[in-house]
User: What shape does this take?
Amino acid sequence: MSSYHIDPLKGLNGQQLQAVEATEGAVLVLAGAGSGKTRVLAHRIAHIIQKGDAKPWQILAVTFTNKAANELRERVAAIAPDGNQVAAGTFHSMMLRLLRREHKAAGFPQDFTVFDSDDSKRLVKIILNEMNEDRFRPNYVHSAISRLKNDFIPPDQCAEEAQTPRDTMIANVYKEYQEKIARFAAMDFDDLLSRPIEVFRNHPMVLNFWSNRWRYILVDEFQDTNRVQFELVQTIAGPRGNLFVVGDDDQSIYSWRGARVENIFQFKEKFDGAQIFRLERNYRSTQPILDLAHSVVSNSIQREAKKLWTERTDGKKPTAIGLTTDIDEVREVVDRIAREVMSGKRSYKDFAILYRTNDQSQLFEDALRARRFPYQVIGALKFLDRKEIRDILGYWKLILNPRDDVALRRIVKEPPRGIGDTTIDKLVKWARENDSSLTEALSKAHQVPGLNSRAVNTCRKFGAELEKWREGLKEKDLGVWAQQMIEETGYLERLEKEGSFEAEGRIGNLERLVSSITAHAEENDTGLRGYLEEVTLATDVDRMDDSADSVFLMTLHASKGLEFPIVFVTGLEAGLFPLENQEQQVENMDEERRLFYVGVTRAEDELFLTYAKQRRRWGQTRYTTVSNFLREIPKESVNWEGLHPYSENQVRTMSLDMFQSGGGWDSSTRNTSASNSASIRATGRARVNPDDIPAIHVGDLVEHERYGQGIVATLTRFRETHKVTVQFDHGFQTFVQDKARLQPVKKFK
Ligand code: ATP
Ligand code: MG
Assistant: This one.
């Protein structure tokens, strides 16, 4: 036992130690962000191994991303021998592994395929087309089916209980979907979780095997598990009940995907005698950051009261920055990164830029690229969502699983090869009547009625090609095979002929795909199937390379569990964050609030909150109002720079009266001239001595020799100077403050 590098009981505080040492029975660690939940989970595994209570592979650890699983394995391996053999992964990847072993009990061939949500939606679309049903969008129908599957409602029951024509339609599509997906020997994401439960219910021996194998079960980010996931761990834990879960109800941000924060609250009821531990000391952030986070999340309607403390009491106060436009926001953020990096204080990788919606990344990317700053976008338009990549993956899926008609229909015309829609319709009809796949229909095209000899030849030729690639897979090195087959499809040739800038990009992506599969083959012996599984089950964060020195860009959702020295939470505007739906409603304000909490608690040392008064979204410039989350922060918890929150819309709508009756923390902060002059300094650049510029603020009454008295409506940096918009009786006027030097006449309370 001398090979332990670190004592798993070291480096923990008293509360953490208790949780680590409580190795038996049901245990819940309910604690706020950065309190060491994930750390406790890793140390607990190492402790169990060290005590000799279980071998690493007898421990199941469920994480939210595959990246987190890898890190966990590495971490345990650093503490305990063979720690990398812990069965760690996401729910989906662990259950896929189980189903491959138990495919017979599940009634599937061993080489079943996994349909990702795009495949599933395509299948729904095909079925809707076949039914001539065009009233509902495939996405909508797919989510309905997904919910039914998660609730274990079979198609027949669904049909019986249908009350409206819509219900009946969904029941019909659902039935067809289940039949087809079974015929294709495929499982969708929902099946990966619900099939194991069915297997366990119907085959006690199988359950017995896995319950005995996984003696200890640990789940990170438990607040974001759904019903089926809860049932899974409960079932596997069985009577032994060694289930250890850690979570934070304040960080539950996936209810829109079926996550149920109640899982945390019901833990005690479901597991008699469950122990509950709380961790109160935060090791990640400074006290000012924690205070700010707490001030906003404590307004949630339903939550377990908890407050974190830290020894890092001397940190910088978070900064809120109001900008005129989204472009200004981007420039401000990138400028700040530039200043810190150029002065040698920080590296690129110390910064994370977080946003509510993926489309906000584009402007940041443009700005970072223009400056030649290295950056990584986590999950924006996922590499694997690109058309050319999905097309080639479609070929690969089909090559592995000739029954996968969805894949065949995806690629048969990519590139065009003389098999048109009428031919496909005939193949589909024949396949249905003969209970076979489209692949089979291709090779037996001569038996398909109504095809002319040219069509027959083309079909059979393509069928033979698919067969050749399938054979090649057995002989060749995977990377070489991939390169060759992509060339043979004619896909590259078509892109080359196109010759456009975009086509160049697509060719580049395919090159990356080949490198990626080559690298996979060098490191694994799981072959094409292993590669496809990995990419199908990959989460956004899995592709993040944190060894690279680059700025990180990601959505707030993707940032869960991560930490960065400096964090920018951007786009804090009503409508954007909290995000409104098309009906301009925030569907779940508390969840948005928790998302804000997740974002700000990623920050270790410094936190910036930005918002822009004008933003282009969906091709339209909109005037925004500041997010209520910013308004909820007590004035002493944040330094304000740039535009003031109530300055939004002023240019268009605010009247003098509104200023005077402003109220809220706007009017009270207006008087904190120390922070205000600091704001002018911070947003300005060299040249003008900032001390010479009169400190004026949004809402101040100023006097101009020609226009008389007016109210400062906006204050923003413009090129190297400060731009001031003042509302006079006759309208708005803009000045360069460095020249105009407007002086405040009187301040409002
Ligand atoms: P989140 O809720 O964001 O997932 P968490 O509760 O899982 O956070 P961790 O990520 O485990 O928290 O820990 C936060 C940071 O604090 C990590 O960098 C971790 O290494 C560090 N940390 C946790 N506990 C200790 C400790 N006892 N001593 C030193 N550092 C610690
Ligand atoms: Mg964690």
The domain at 113-184 is CATH 1.10.10.160 (Arc Repressor Mutant, subunit A). Residues 37-38, 220, 561 surround magnesium ion (ligand 2) (CB under 6 Å). Residues 647-688 have pLDDT under 50 and may be disordered. The chain has five domains: 14-102+193-281, 113-184, 296-381+546-683, 384-537, 690-744.
